[in-house]
Each structure stands twice: as C-alpha cells, then as structure tokens.
Amino acid sequence: MKSFFTLPGGFGAGAVGSATYTAVTAVLEPEYYAVATACQYLAQSVGQVGGLAASGTILRSVLSKWLRKALQGRDDADTIIDQVLGNTSYIVRLTGELKGIVLKGYVISLGACHGLSTALNGIAFALAIGLAERRLS
C-alpha cells in the first residue's frame, strides 16, 4: 500500500514532461522539433541524475548525523553507523531497540529527501509561472 505514495510524483512527472513538450512544440517551427525533443530529454536526464545524487547525499548525511546522536555513548556506535551506511542487509539482522533506532533514522532521512524534492519542485513551479509563451523566430 505504501508504494502508492509514489503515484502522485510519477503522475506529476509524466504530466510535466507532456506539458513541456507541448509548450516547446507550440513555439517552434516543425523543423526544430527533433532538436528540441533531444534537448528536453537531455535536460530531464541531467536533472534526474543530479536529483538522485543530491538525495543520496542528503540521505547519508542526515542518517549519519541522526545515528551519531541516537547512539551517543555506545562503544560500538561507529561500527554500527558504518555497517548501516555501507550494507543495507545489515539492518535485517538487527533486533530490538537498535533496529528501531536505525529504522527511525531512515524515516527521518527519507523525510529530508522528500523535503528537498518538494522545495525544488516549488522553485521550478514558481519559475514556470513567470515564463512567457511567445513564438521563437
């Protein structure tokens, strides 16, 4: 059921891609459609790679900081943090309170990633409002 939470984002990405293509082709002569489409796909790919890299960096950073704070005072804190960040199958082997702490850290980290995504989408939306549609010549 939780996988359905990704549905609005996927729907939004599809709608934006279609709307962008429609807007671009509305202002270009037909002989430029191929170049515009290639540039659009390039920009989307670069944006996806950049977003994925930023999300991964934020996830690791927030998770590491949160775990350091939550595991403060434990002798094995550094080992646990290294294992959690380096091997997701390690989490399956955890039990009890430690597993709860690690899972809560992941939830908080994913929340930070979603916050980044929401902020960047808001910026993109605000910039898109200011775009004027006019024929390029």
Automatic annotation (TrEMBL):
Compartments where located: Membrane
Keyword Thylakoid: no
SUPFAM superfamilies found in the cross-reference section: MFS general substrate transporter (SSF103473)
Sorted UniProt keywords: Membrane, Transmembrane, Transmembrane helix
Membrane topology term: Multi-pass membrane protein
GO molecular function, one term: basic amino acid transmembrane transporter activity
Chief location: membrane
Example of a GO cellular component annotation carried by this entry: fungal-type vacuole membrane
InterPro entries: MFS_trans_sf
Transmembrane helix keyword on record: yes
Domain of life: Eukaryota
Protein name from the UniProt record: Uncharacterized protein
Native source organism of the sequence: Cyphellophora attinorum
